[in-house]
Design goal:
By secondary structure, the chain is mainly α. The chain has helices at about 1-5, 10-35. The longest helix has 25 residues, at about 10-35.
Length: about 35
């Protein structure tokens, strides 16, 4: 896990993962609206 090498706390790993998932879903919604 790349985040462990940077010594990121477990809580931040969950937060970062959640933000990435939300961004991915948001981008997907925007792409679908554009078509």
């Amino acid at each position: 896990n790349g985040l462990r090498i940077l010594s990121v706390p477990q809580e931040w790993q969950m937060v970062i993962t959640g933000v990435i998932v939300v961004l991915a879903v948001y981008i997907d919604i925007i792409r679908r609206r554009g078509k």
